[in-house]
Amino acid sequence: MFLVLSVLFTSFPLPCLPDPISVQPVSQDKPLAHQPFSLQCVGSQNSASILWLKNGLPVAVSGRVSLSPNNITVSFSPLLQSDGGLYQCIVSQGGAPIKGFGYQLNVNYGPVQAVIIQSGKGPVGKALYLLPGSKTALQCSALCYPTCTYIWIYKGRLAEMNTFSLTPETTMDRGPLSCVAYNSVTNDNSTVNTSVVLLDGPSNVTISGPGALEVGVKASFKCIAQCSPSCSYTWSVYGRTMHGSVVDSTVTWPLSLSAARHTTQSPGRQPQPMRHSVSQVWSNYYDPSI
Ligand SMILES: *[C@@H]1O[C@H](CO)[C@@H](O)[C@H](O)[C@H]1NC(C)=O
Ligand SMILES: *[C@@H]1O[C@H](CO)[C@@H](O)[C@H](O)[C@H]1NC(C)=O
Ligand SMILES: *[C@@H]1O[C@H](CO)[C@@H](O)[C@H](O)[C@H]1NC(C)=O
Ligand SMILES: *[C@@H]1O[C@H](CO)[C@@H](O)[C@H](O)[C@H]1NC(C)=O
């Protein structure tokens, strides 16, 4: 008896049980930023009134985000990264409104805003200044969904890794460095370039000027040194500081001059005194690489 009843119930489902209501993508294509995309409310009847929610709030309709006349589909043209969220439809068809199963929309996008970050220092610019022999760790980062993979190209050689380390030894190690961020879903990539430059100098500092100085007569001095990146020059004349590679001065005795390389990445070092060929003129320079 019990068995027969059970079979009867299975064969004749209750007619008033509604179909489950849910949000589903209209097509099988993955949601890509900058492409059209549509969601539909599945399981409602034709006469139903439908309300769309995104993250619990009514969907804001605009020129880009539109509803079909019966509200069954919501279309994004194009889809943007900001459209990501939980979408639900609320269906009213006679009885109490029914909130359907939601759909989590994850927009595939990027890579955008790719940057190379120097460990402990921050984003790298057009040039990456490094001290010879110092180990530097670099990270590549871009905004992507899903997560990007990264490829490094240093002086034409390829390396597939997130963190790239280099220890430049000589000026031979300078050269272009690129990171390529790649998103396998959007099939898009973004390249960020920098140039490895070795900090060097100042070396070969020379001061040129008159071979002899006459007290009370104006004389012009020029300082030249080899630096990477370029040197800046500071002169100290009777305790007065002057800038630029050339100074004019009316001298008395003795005269002190100094040149320094100036970069934001150079730690300060002890000045190295250097005697110039013009007697009576002394120069000092700061060499951050010593
Ligand atoms: C469609 O949705 C809008 C708001 O999103 C609502 O004002 C309107 O009544 C809905 N129409 C139907 C037929 O459900
Ligand atoms: C990056 O994208 C360009 C253009 O789509 C393609 O030619 C190139 O091969 C890609 N590079 C990498 C490393 O995937
Ligand atoms: C980076 O360098 C590569 C080759 O050196 C070049 O094709 C690309 O346009 C550069 N990208 C940027 C953003 O400068
Ligand atoms: C130093 O500079 C002078 C003049 O600019 C140049 O002739 C000389 O070769 C340089 N010496 C070195 C070691 O670079």
From TrEMBL:
UniProtKB keywords: Disulfide bond, Glycoprotein, Immunoglobulin domain, Signal
Domain Ig-like: 18-108, 111-195
InterPro entries: Ig-like_dom, Ig-like_dom_sf, Ig-like_fold, Ig_sub, IgSF_CEA-related
Signal peptide: 1-18
PANTHER family noted in UniProt: CARCINOEMBRYONIC ANTIGEN-RELATED CELL ADHESION MOLECULE 5-RELATED, CARCINOEMBRYONIC ANTIGEN-RELATED CELL ADHESION MOLECULE 8
Record protein name field: Carcinoembryonic antigen-related cell adhesion molecule 6
Organism annotation: Salmo salar (Atlantic salmon)
Biological classification of the source: Eukaryota, Metazoa, Chordata, Craniata, Vertebrata
Protein's gene: LOC123728234
